[in-house]
Every structure is written in structure tokens, then in C-alpha cells.
Amino acid sequence: MQSLQEKASEWSGVDSADAFAIDNTNLFQKLGLQTFINLSTNFYNRVYDDEEEEWFRSIFVNSKKEEAIQNQYEFFVQRMGGPPLYSQRKGHPALIGRHRPFPVTHQAAERWLYHMEKALDSTPDIDEDSKIKMKNFFRHEFHQITSLPILIKPILNSITVLIVYFASR
Hints:
The protein is an all-alpha fold. Helix content is 72%, strand content 0%. It has ten helices and no strands.
């Protein structure tokens, strides 16, 4: 059975080494807090103004834009070498668990990535090398989140069979 990382690499087209190249450079030190705030603001402005794909915008209908911006930039800062702002306020990031209530399908992941790539391209303080590293990381991570339900389905089916078997004894 493929690991979550292998499945994410297969579906995203991004090798794990490229996805985690963000760990080889402290992007927080390189770019600074304000750049991450600007990136997240650009991203969520695009999401909340998305007129083309209302189904995507509807995923965020119960979220306050300002809180979504803060959650995202604090996570990015923490993940990319800065202080643990997100964990201090919200606890462990647990990306898969935190996204479980939302319909994170391949289609939703691609729309998220579309908006993030546009936000990266419209944030002038992010150099090209950092953009590439971030794009690879985001693409891989989102496909990792969407891979989990597919990978665990056979395990859940096996558990169900065992429960039925032992319940009938």
C-alpha cells in the first residue's frame, strides 16, 4: 500500500524532496511577517470574491475572513521557520484533522491552489525561488489532504469486517 506521501507525490506531480524544499531555507527570515500577512490577505480576498466558482466560495461561508487570514498566515509563519504563532493560539496545526469538516476534494484543492498561485504572483515581496518552493509545498500538501480518505478506505473496510466477524461470535 502506498504511503500518504507517495500518493500525494503521485497526484500532485511534486516529488517529496521538492515539496519539502521549504525546509532548506527559513522563508520567514527571508520574507518577513508582513509578507505572509499580505499573501494570506491576497489569497482570501480572491476566495471571498470568487464569482466564477460559487461552490468554492461557499466552503468558507461560515468563516470570518479576518480569522481565516490570521489562521493562514500564522500557520505559514510557523511552518516556514518563524515563531509558533498558530500553535500558541490554536494548538497543533493538524492540517488533515482541521480540514476534515470541509469538502476538500481534488476539485476544491485545485481551486485553492489556483487562488494561492494568483496570490503568490500578486505579492511583490516574494522572490521567484520562494514562490516555487511554496507552490510545490502547497500542491503536495493539498493532495496529501485529499489522499487520506482514499488510502484509509481499505483499512476501514477491513476493520468493519473484523467488527462484524467478532460481533457474530
